[in-house]
Amino acid sequence: MDSTPSPSSSSPFDLVSSALGRYGSRGGAAAAAGPDSAAAGPDRPQGERTTGRRVADSPAADRHDQILGVVNLDRELRITRANLDAAVFAGLDAVAGSPFAELLPPRDVPTVTRRLRQVLEVGEAHVARIQRLRRTDGSELVVSLSILPAAAPQEGLTVSLIAMARRLHLYAAETAIGTSLDIGETAQSLAESLLAWGDVAAVDLDFAVWTGEGVTDQAQGRIRLRRAALVPDRAWPEGYVTPGGDLPSDASRLLAQAVLRDDAPQAIVIPDRESVERLLGSPRVIRALVPGDRSASVACMPLVLDSAPPVVLGVAEVWRRADHPFRDGELFDLQELVARTAHHVDLARQHQREHTQVLALQRRLLPRTGGHTVEIASIYQPATPDSAGVGGDWVNSFPLPDGRTALVVGDVVGHGLGAAATMGQLSMEARALLSAGLAPDEVLEHLDETVTLLDDTESGLTAGYSALGSTCCIALYDPVSHHVTLASAGHLPPVLVLPDGHAGPLAVRPHPGLGAEFALREPFDVHTFAAPPGSLLALYTDGLVEDPALSIDEGIGRLADTVATVHPWDTLQQAARHVVSTLAPVRQRDDVTLLLARMIGYRKGDTATWRLPARADAPARARAHVSALLRQWDSRTDTRDDVTLLVSELVTNAVRFAAGPITVRLIRAGRGLLCEVGDTGNGRPRLGRGDLLGDAGRGLHIVHRLTTRWGVRWTDTGKVVWAEVAR
């Protein structure tokens, strides 16, 4: 490379090089080989890497913080010439003939290579890309990179580099650190940014910050630190604390005391290895905190929460070798970077706390176990950590007192604590109403009203959250009739797989969802489907079936095909995991929720049903049927007497206060007997405090004393009074 470019040269490389104030001090061979070979001299063996020049800590040196460099590439993107003489570029191995990609972090190679080839093909410059370059010692340099096409296409490209050692680092670092709400990623971004000022960077956070707990100014002297990030990625000495590990208690105490001198957080510098070892004292602490034998000095900056009094969230450490001590200007930059980004760490802590709280609530709502008439398995997979927070997906299943099983799935609009609070309220309300005997459509009517009330001007919109448009689907499984009754409010249809292998979504009429405008509100339809023993029902949220490349119907079809592959002998929980991993192999931007229910039902011999006319002889006929059945079931004498009396009282009450035929059903369920008496009346039996010897209310008092629990559920034709008796 010529040391003096021709004024008439049209090469972008020569034009940029001519603008370098210190260009021309070296011959072409030195410039092409890069600064490392130029640093070799009589007293330095050829090939030994220099660690970078010492720049005097003076105003004159500060004026050179912004330095221009230039690299020329051929059409194969290999370096042909380079002028990176400035001290700030020391360590960049821009050797002629080597690929330019070797200067890039591996994660950036595809993107930058694509940009380089685009400029080659189109001939239009790509300017001012903030980019990191790799030094030979593992550290990185942040530059503003511009790609310029040569005047003649066959000459390749010119890449200009502007290393703004202070402002560009600070700007790029703060921008990168603020892009994630994950505490680990935030700490990692901070450590990577700090590496520009040293050889090793670590971020240690207070354990309360790491776990998302509250942070106070109390007990700062007893701070417990956990390593959250460490760069570069390399093999570390035995005993050195790596990410995820807790610092020894005496090491945590030393760091806390160092950055909290005179009760005020402040940065400190330990200038040499002798001082480091003298301060740390214990060999165990030295092994835990000092990254290696070459590390001689360290700068410790507290991450301070801007409050009164200030609270230390953790400590950031930057280590250097002995021949590269910290300058005052660099320490100012380090403190400014840590001060600017400490609030990002606290935001990540708050997000972690909210994420943990919401996730705990959703885990609490997940079904624990199924009953003896249905097998349950559920999967909840939260969205990616950098999303706006855990969503409002929820599923629940629980046995109803009358022997049926409720299966509920919902999707509350939004993310975070607002969605979680609404999710919990709707889930608990649905459970209470279903347990009280309301039908699925009636429960949805109540939930619809609840969502509307939650969205009023006082409690909803003023809080910055709206649940309008949330969806819910309620399915009730009757283990005697082997039917599923369901109602849906804007939710995707469940998928049913029959024992013969036929699979598909249930034909559910669409509904606008919960909290729709009054003009759009429609009655909630109730649908009933046969679900023989061995059937498999899948309830889910849209995160499982949504795919940008497919329509929603195709996504539901994929779900039906996948669920149909579940073998009757497969463990249901493993089958649920297989379905989710097949349809959502990577974490999505939306939560993924799946509830699988395998229908078992009662055996024929465990149930009996009789229909009786509403006449005076109905109680006697009911007693005869029940007594004969209990003898067949080998029930104890006292149980047989109690159940016979119980059924007699319920039938007597139905004859007296209702009309139409009376249905008596007896179910042998686990350790109890379930008695049901249905009629066409719409009155609700109530247990009063009247005279127990009088006729009014005497039957209900008998029912109350003989049973472990009893209640009422409503049907299309009337009501059913049920009662459970221990066997």
The secondary structure category is alpha+beta
Q: What is the number of helical segments per DSSP (H or I, 4+ residues)?
A: 19
Poorly predicted runs are: 1-9, 21-66, 385-389, 691-696
Strand order of the largest sheet: 2-1-5-4-3
Largest sheet: 5 strands, antiparallel
Helix content: 25-40%
Rounded Rg: 37 Å
Beta content = 15-25%
Distance between the termini: 99 Å
The tally of beta strands, per DSSP, is 25
Shape: elongated
- Average pLDDT figure: 77
Strands, helices and their partners?
Layout (H helix, E strand, L loop, with lengths): L11 H7 L9 H6 L1 H4 L20 H4 L3 E8 L5 E5 L25 H14 L3 E9 L5 E10 L7 E8 L2 H11 L5 H12 L5 E7 H5 L13 E7 L17 H11 L8 E3 L2 H8 L2 H7 L5 E11 L5 E11 L6 H38 L8 E8 L9 E9 L5 E11 H20 L4 H15 L16 E8 L4 E7 L5 E3 L5 E3 L21 E4 L5 E5 L11 H12 L8 H12 L8 E8 L7 E6 L5 H15 L4 H21 L4 E8 L2 E8 L18 H9 L2 E6 L4 E8 L1
Antiparallel strand pairs: 1-2, 1-5, 3-4, 4-5, 6-7, 6-10, 8-9, 9-10, 11-20, 12-13, 13-14, 14-15, 15-18, 16-17, 16-19, 19-20, 21-22, 22-23, 23-25, 24-25
Quickly list its features.
alpha+beta, five-stranded antiparallel beta sheet, 25 strands, 25% strand, disordered N terminus
Explain this structure to me?
The termini are far apart. With 727 residues, the chain is α+β, with helices and mostly antiparallel strands. It has a five-stranded antiparallel beta sheet with strand order 2-1-5-4-3. Strands 7-6-10-9-8 form a five-stranded antiparallel beta sheet, sandwiched between helices. It is built from 19 helices and 25 strands.
